[in-house]
Design a protein that fits this description.
mainly beta
Length: 797
C-alpha cells in the first residue's frame, strides 16, 4: 500500500486526495466523490502535468446506495449518466497495489433505480488514466470489501439487467491494474479513439466489452456467451489474456463466442479456462467461435492460443506471417507485445514507453486489418460490373498507402473477371446457367492480412416459360389444388401463385407464394365462409421474366358445409400475406402497427419511421428455428376476427423467442399478449400477458389481464416460467366465464434452471368479442430480430 503521508506532501492544485477518513477542510483533500466533483477543483491537465486525484482505500459511492429514487439522467444525453466529468489528462490513482481496496461504486440499472441503461460515469477529455481502481456497478453483483467487511453490500437485485460503468469522449485512454465489475452491458469506459487496458480484470455477461481497444495481460470472467456486441473501427486486440468461461453451456452452439454481431477480433497468446459446473469431469474440448452468424466480411486473427477459434474460413492464423509483428516481437529476452505499433497513431503515443526498451518496435509501423467496402456484391443484369475499395488500416484507423494486394476468385456456375486499379477492384460477371452463381473474392496483403466478399451473379433473364399443361383447379376433401406444368428447360419453377377470397365486392389475399415454398394447395377455413375462391398464377422460373397472369375461379361461393374446418382458422404462416391490413372485419386477418395506451419506458427509441409492413416472413437465428413470421418494429398486432361472437373460444400459438435464456424480450417492461374472446375494434377483452420482468433475468412473468378500451389491468397473480424459449406453445381458452391458459416448451431445459418449464393460469374472465390474436411490444434488437419472437403457427376456434 502506498505511503499516504508521502502523497500528502505532493498535494497541490494538480494533485488532489480523495480520502473518506480525511479531516474536514484539509487542504486539497476531499471526503467523497460528491464533494470532489462539486468543488470545481478538477481542471484540465497536460501530458506533462496531468490532473491527478489519489484515492485512499475505501468504497466511494456515486449515489446513496439506499436511494430508491428513479434516476432518469439529463434530457438530451445519450445515456442516463450519474456523473459527468469534463477534464483533459485526468488521472485517478488508487493508493494500493490491490485494486479491490479502492472502489468507485453504484448499484442501479435498467428498471432497477433507473429508466434506461444506467451509466455511472461520463468523461470528456483526452488522456484519461486509471490505476489501482475498481469501478463496479453492484446492481447485480455483491460488493465484497475485504478491508472492511462492514462495507459489504448485497446486490440490488437478482435479475441481471443493463448496469453500465461509463464512457469517455476523447483519445488516449489507459487503464492499468484496475477492475471493471458488472454483468450485462459492462461498458468499461468505452468510446475513446485509442484505449489500452493493462493488467485489468473484467466480469460481465453480454454486450459488455469495449469493441475498439487493446487488452494486455488482462483476465476476464465471462458469464454470458457474447461479451462484445460488435466491434468498432479496427476491432479489439487481446494480448496474453486469460478467459474464464463461467456461464451456462449452450447446447445448440459453441461454448463461447466473442461477438454477438460482426467485426474484427485479434486473440494473440491467450488462454481459456472452462469453469462451468456442467463441464467439470468431462473431457469435451472447449468450442470457441468469433460470432454465431459470421458474415463474409468478418475476418479475425489468432496466434499462439491454447484453444482454437473458429470458424476456420473466418480465421487468419498469423503463424509464420509478417503481420504477426504488428502484435508481438520475439526478442532475446522473450516475447514482447507490440502495443506501441497498435496505438502509436499519427502522434506516436507510446503508453508503455516501449521505444526505450524495445528498439524493434521502432523499425516500422505495421497495419492490422484489410477491409473491403462491401462484403456482399450482386452482379445483376443491370449492373454486371461493381467496384470495391480495398483499405489496409493501422489499428488506430489510419490507412496504409499503396499496399500490395493479391486477389483470388472461386467461381461457381458463373464467370467472374477482376480488374484492379490501385486499391479499387472492379468485378465483371456473366452467368448463362440456370442457377445463381455464388462466388467468393479473397484478398490478401504481403503481411498476411485477409478480407473476403461474397459475389452473387444471377442468371441472365430468359423469356417467360411456356405452358405444357394449362392451369386448372380441383377440390378434394375440402382442399383446392392448382394443377399446371411448365416447360422449365432445367430451371426451377418460381411461379407467383396468389389465392384470394371475394365477398361483398371486396377481395382479400389469403395465400401467397414465397421462394422455396409452394402454395399450389389452399385449405379453406372459417375465413372462407360465404366467399368466392380465386387463384391467380403468373408463370415464371428462377431465371425468367414473368409471363401473363391467369386467373381462375375455383368456387363461386363456399358454404359452411363445404368447409371441413368451418369453425376454425389455422396457419403455419409459410404462405401468409404480410402486407399492412389495418381494417378489422369479420373473417379478415388484421396486420397492423400497435402503440399501447399503457406507457412503456422506452418506445421505438431507435426507429425513425414505420416500415412498410408490420410483419415479415424470414429466417433468423439464436432461439429461432427455421423461418416464421416476425415483427419488423416495436409495436405490432395480428388478429383474426370470427364472423360471430362466442362465449367459448380457444387459441394456440406456437413460437420461438430469439432470446435463449428465457427472458423473452430486450428490456424489462416489454411484453406479448395472446388475446382470445377479444373485441379488436374497441380493444376490450381478456388476454394472457408474457412479460419481461425486472424480477427475473432467465424467466418471464405470465399473468392474465383484461383490456378496457385499450387499457389493460391484471386479473391474476404473476407466475414465472423458463418455458418462453424455443418450441414454446401457448394455449389460451375462454369458457364458462373463465380464462384458462397453458404455456410450455418442447425443449428440455438444463437442470440448473430454477423456474418451471410450463405454467397453467386459471381465472375468472368473460369474452368481449370474436377476435383472437397477438399484441407484441418488444424491440426487434440487433439485425432486426435478436430481441423478438418468431411465430410458427396460430390455430383458433
Amino acid at each position: 500500500m502506498t505511503d499516504k503521508s508521502a502523497i500528502m506532501k505532493k498535494l497541490d492544485a494538480h494533485h488532489l486526495l480523495l480520502d473518506g477518513s480525511a479531516a474536514p477542510g484539509a487542504a486539497w483533500c476531499f471526503r467523497s466523490l460528491q464533494e470532489l466533483f462539486a468543488s470545481g477543483a478538477l481542471q484540465n491537465g497536460t501530458p506533462e502535468t496531468p490532473m491527478t486525484v489519489y484515492l485512499a482505500p475505501d468504497v466511494y459511492w456515486l449515489h446513496d446506495p439506499e436511494d430508491r429514487e428513479i434516476f432518469r439522467g439529463t434530457e438530451g444525453d445519450f445515456l442516463p449518466y450519474q456523473q459527468k466529468i469534463k477534464c483533459s489528462y485526468l488521472s485517478l490513482i488508487g493508493l494500493s497495489e490491490h485494486p479491490e481496496d479502492v472502489v468507485i461504486a453504484a448499484n442501479k440499472g435498467q428498471s432497477h433505480g433507473c429508466i434506461g441503461n444506467y451509466t455511472m460515469l461520463h468523461f470528456e477529455g483526452d488522456g484519461l488514466y486509471l490505476e489501482n481502481l475498481t469501478i463496479g456497478n453492484y446492481c447485480n453483483v455483491d460488493l465484497e470489501y475485504p478491508l472492511d467487511p462492514s462495507k459489504n453490500r448485497p446486490k440490488r437485485c437478482k435479475a441481471v439487467t443493463q448496469a453500465q460503468l461509463g464512457d469517455v469522449v476523447g483519445d488516449r485512454f489507459h487503464a492499468k491494474n484496475s477492475r471493471f465489475i458488472s454483468r450485462l452491458n459492462l461498458y468499461p469506459i468505452c468510446g475513446a479513439k485509442r484505449s489500452l487496458y493493462e493488467n485489468c480484470h473484467f466480469e460481465s455477461t453480454d454486450d459488455a466489452l469495449n469493441g475498439n481497444a487493446v487488452y494486455l495481460h488482462c483476465d476476464f470472467d465471462f458469464y454470458g456467451g457474447c461479451p462484445i456486441s460488435a466491434t468498432d473501427a479496427t476491432g479489439s486486440a487481446f494480448l496474453d489474456c486469460l478467459f474464464r468461461i463461467c456461464g451456462h453451456r449452450d447446447r445448440s452452439g459453441a461454448d463461447q463466442y466473442f461477438m454477438k454481431g460482426q467485426g474484427c477480433v485479434y486473440v494473440i497468446g491467450c488462454r481459456f479456462e472452462d469453469l462451468r459446473k456442467e463441464s467439470m469431469g468431462t473431457s469435451r474440448a472447449l468450442q470457441v467461435q468469433w460470432t454465431r452468424y459470421p458474415q463474409p466480411e468478418t475476418m479475425c486473427y489468432a496466434y499462439g492460443n491454447d484453444t482454437p477459434i473458429g470458424p476456420a474460413e473466418h480465421t487468419v492464423d498469423l503463424t509464420g506471417k509478417k503481420g504477426l509483428r504488428a502484435f508481438l516481437i520475439e526478442t532475446k529476452s522473450g516475447v514482447q507485445y507490440n502495443v506501441r505499433n497498435l496505438l502509436r497513431g499519427t502522434d506516436d503515443w507510446d503508453p508503455l514507453g516501449q521505444r526505450e526498451y524495445l528498439p524493434e518496435a521502432e523499425t516500422e509501423h505495421l497495419p492490422v486489418q484489410l477491409v473491403l467496402s462491401r462484403g456482399n456484391v450482386e452482379l445483376t443484369e443491370e449492373h454486371r460490373s461493381q467496384t470495391l475499395a480495398a483499405q489496409v488500416k493501422y489499428f488506430s484507423g489510419e490507412m496504409q498507402e499503396h499496399p500490395e494486394l493479391a486477389c483470388e476468385i472461386t467461381e461457381d456456375g458463373s464467370r467472374i473477371r477482376l480488374q484492379r486499379q490501385g486499391q479499387e477492384l472492379t468485378l465483371y460477371g456473366e452467368n448463362n446457367d440456370v442457377r445463381t452463381g455464388k462466388n467468393r473474392l479473397s484478398v490478401r496483403t504481403e503481411t498476411g492480412l485477409a478480407a473476403m466478399a461474397e459475389i452473387i451473379v444471377p442468371p441472365t433473364t430468359r423469356p417467360a416459360p411456356k405452358w405444357k399443361q394449362s392451369p386448372y383447379v380441383t377440390c378434394r376433401k375440402g382442399t383446392f389444388t392448382l394443377h399446371y406444368e411448365l416447360e422449365l428447360e432445367g430451371a426451377q419453377d418460381a411461379s407467383l401463385i396468389c389465392w384470394e377470397l371475394e365477398q361483398d365486392g371486396e377481395r382479400r389475399t389469403v395465400s401467397v407464394s414465397r421462394p422455396g415454398v409452394g402454395n399450389r394447395a389452399y385449405h379453406p377455413g372459417n375465413e372462407a365462409i360465404g366467399a368466392a375462391v380465386y387463384v391467380r398464377i403468373t408463370p415464371r422460373t428462377n431465371c425468367s421474366a414473368c409471363g401473363e397472369t391467369i386467373e381462375l375461379c375455383a368456387r363461386e361461393r363456399l358454404e359452411p358445409e363445404g368447409i371441413e374446418d368451418a369453425g376454425r382458422v389455422q396457419t403455419d404462416f409459410t404462405d401468409f400475406p404480410t402486407e399492412l391490413q389495418p381494417r378489422i372485419r369479420p373473417q379478415w386477418w388484421t396486420r397492423d402497427f400497435y402503440t399501447p395506451r399503457e406507457a412503456l419506458a422506452e418506445w421505438r427509441k431507435w426507429e425513425q419511421k414505420l416500415p412498410e409492413t408490420p410483419w415479415s416472413y424470414r429466417t433468423a437465428g439464436n432461439g429461432c428455428v427455421g423461418a416464421g413470421l416476425m415483427p419488423t418494429i416495436q409495436g405490432v398486432k395480428l388478429f383474426y376476427t370470427f364472423a360471430e361472437e362466442s362465449r367459448e373460444m380457444r387459441a394456440e400459438v406456437y413460437l420461438d423467442p430469439a432470446k435463449t435464456s428465457g427472458q423473452g424480450f430486450g428490456s424489462a417492461g416489454q411484453y406479448m399478449d395472446v388475446c382470445v374472446g377479444f373485441d379488436a375494434q374497441t380493444m376490450t377483452g381478456p388476454a394472457l400477458r408474457i412479460l419481461r420482468s425486472p424480477e427475473a433475468s432467465n424467466a418471464v412473468a405470465v399473468f392474465p389481464v383484461y383490456y378496457e378500451e385499450g387499457l389493460a389491468s391484471p386479473i391474476g397473480e404473476h407466475c414465472y416460467t423458463a418455458g418462453f424459449v424455443t418450441g414454446c406453445h401457448i394455449e389460451v381458452q375462454i369458457r364458462d366465464g373463465r380464462l384458462r391458459a397453458h404455456l410450455w416448451t418442447e425443449r428440455e431445459l438444463p437442470p440448473s434452471v430454477e423456474y418451471p418449464s410450463e405454467i397453467i393460469v386459471d381465472t375468472k374472465a368473460v369474452a368481449a368479442g370474436g377476435s383472437v390474436g397477438v399484441l407484441h411490444t418488444g424491440t426487434c434488437g440487433g439485425d432486426g430480430w435478436q430481441n423478438t419472437v418468431m411465430l410458427h403457427g396460430l390455430r383458433a376456434e
